[in-house]
Amino acid sequence: MRFFFLALLVVSTAVPPLHALDKQPAGAYHARRVALAAELHGGVAVLFAAEEPVLDFMPYRQDSNFYYLTGWNEPGAALMIVGDAPQASTPRAYREILYLPVRNLRTEKYTGVKMDAATPDVTEASGVDHVESMTELPADLTRLVASDHALATNLWTQPDSTAAAALINFTATTLGTNEVPQPHDVTTLTMPLRQLKDEGEIELIKKSSAASMLAQRVMMKWWVKASMTERAVAGAMTAVWMENGCERPSYAPIVGSGINSTILHYSANDRTMQDGDILLVDAACEYSMYAADITRTVPVNGHFTPRQREIFNVVLGAQQAAINAFVAGKSTINDRDRHDPNSLDTVAYNYINTHGKDLHGQPLGQYWLHGLGHMMGIDVHDPGVYPVVLKPGMVFTIEPGVYIPDEKLGVRIECDFLVGPDGKLIDLDAALPHTADEVEAVMQGK
Ligand code: GLY
Ligand code: MN
């Protein structure tokens, strides 16, 4: 027994590997915390890590904002950022603290070794100026508010966090405050920061794009055949992502053949593909927490029918029209009104509505319902208040589609774009087939 505890001690004093994700240098996360602090105007932000998933078979994924600010990939942690407040009744200077839960050696038998505030070198490993035990968080916040009651109205947390609500309630109770202060939504401050990607983030997105493109190519070349199931295609693509260092799909893969190609977020993937079907494959992966989002539409037998090709070309033309119209700092994305001439949605819609017809001779605009694109980053749908004006450093999708249930024909073409420092649009998926001829060439092994 004594030997057991000794052995446990030896294991438990070593610094465990933090995680298997590619992390950016500590300075990148620190810069984001400082940038957030500048928006707090003397306030205090407390963010909590994501909780463990409820179902055992679901892998852990860190809260996106928490990861953006820390690169920390463990549950049970919290981050406090104290903004500069030189004029406060008790003046405060910038301070950042990572709170870690106390290690539980029994749980670690199931989860693997964790770090806590007592782990040697934990401050260096975390890259945060101060690391404390989670048990200190309520007392630290209470002390701060007690020293400056105005702070109660300048607290920032994630809006849906039960831990944050409990912390604020506890602070109010401890201070004997009748009214529990309503914290502000910290994600409104992280959103504009997250929209502008730094170089390290762009490198990670390029890695998720590379693995996602490879999987799309493997899909076209090897896996799309009559009598194959949609799910087998999703599985084969998942294997490619994981072989290439990605941890998971960045959303449930959409592999829709025939009528399923017209269902925007179809994910049952349980149909067997038939000769002559169209197949819409909206599937991509996440590399070290950064998403890609790619859709290609292909003919199951490797040859588009004339009608499939006609609709494909309308969608491709709409995407190209939006690309051609793009002007950094002026163009917007995801404008559902489709009236503003600066909106790329308007450009794509006008193209679709003036090219091609349905079987009743009607224009095709009615068959495209969703927005033209969205911001992309740590989340496949990164936060944005739409329509967003597109600026250098932003990454977003352009994904027009036409979905005609009567013809069992849905086509979406989706690529991810970066606005370069010079304002030029960079297609991150340029290496993947775009045109109908290019798709057929890969499918036919040319
Ligand atoms: N790729 C799924 C979506 O953008 O909604
Ligand atoms: Mn998308």
Automatic annotation (TrEMBL):
It comes from Candidatus Sulfuritelmatomonas gaucii. It is an enzyme of class 3 (hydrolase). It comes from the Bacteria. It holds the Pfam family Peptidase_M24. Residues 24-162 form the Aminopeptidase P N-terminal domain. This is Xaa-Pro aminopeptidase. SMART domains: AMP_N. One of its GO terms (biological process) is proteolysis. Keywords: Hydrolase, Manganese, Metal-binding, Signal. Belongs to the peptidase M24B family.
